[in-house]
Amino acid sequence: MKTNYLKKYIISSYILVWALIIFVAGTASLVFHAPPVIMWLVRNLIAWSPTYLLLLGWKYFRPEETRTVFVKRCFSGKIKLLPLLSSFALTFGISVLALFLFSGITGKPILSYINLGKTALPLSIFLSLSSGPTGEELGWRGFMREEFNRRYSFLKSSVCQGLVWCFWHTLLWVVDSDFTDWRAIPYVISNIVVITSMTVLMNMFLERHNNLLYSVLLHFGFNIIYVFLDADIGFFMILTVLYLMITPTAVLIRNKSKGKR
Q1: pLDDT mean over 82-90
Q2: In terms of DSSP H, where are the helices of the chain?
Q3: Total domain count for the chain?
Q4: Is residue 96 included in any domain, yes or no?
Q5: Percentage helix, strand, coil, to 5, in the chain?
Q6: Range with the poorest average pLDDT among 28-32, 83-87, 213-217, 243-247
Q7: Is residue 48 part of a domain?
Q8: Which range marks the domain in which residue 171 is found?
Q9: Confidence band for 261, pLDDT divided at 50, 70 and 90
Q10: Which pTM value belongs to this model?
Q11: 145-163 pLDDT, tens per residue?
């Protein structure tokens, strides 16, 4: 029977991230009471787990190919400045729009929902970029995307990738969220919808440009605002609605464009 390397990778990535959260992040927080910056570094270490799992365990997930060939292919597409900036602007802009709408509904100024915290701004930006955006993409949009694309159509492949990526965060919803009451339900729903939608949008850029820098910047555009955001569940509900409107529209435009070729 043919080995299911994708299944092996997904299961291994879940086991690894949950173990790191429980034993590394849990120990740093509960035993050593690590300060916020150290905990941020720990979270970055955890965020990189899909990549070092893939590279260290390469022969178990893609034995027919070398790491070098794979990595070169993931970054083989030509970089075009406008699409690259657009990948960042897309997710960043959706979050800003959600915050603008949330601010209008609550009647409070947008800046009242922004908390710069105690960490220097350049360090915050660097730590955000060096977390999930650079740490996860080789595994998710590199290896996993290729494997799912071999099996399914664009949309089904993207949704499957998004759900795997989404539920990889499950334990974080429990230990690293402010929403522990009834708000946990819309928060989880928002995560499922938004992360899956983001995956679809990422794959549109990668389908055209085939370079992970596009998904890195799109991921970063989404993450950076949450470094400073201090908003209630209403923001995430608005964000969910926006992604449910924007992503299907983008898919329809893609399909129509493909049909004309």
Answers
A1: 98
A2: 5-19, 26, 36-47, 49-56, 58-61, 67-74, 81-106, 121-129, 132-135, 137, 145-151, 154-167, 170-175, 184-209, 212-223, 233-260
A3: 1
A4: yes
A5: 80, 0, 20
A6: 28-32
A7: no
A8: 78-260
A9: very low
A10: 0.95
A11: 999 999 999 999 999 999 9
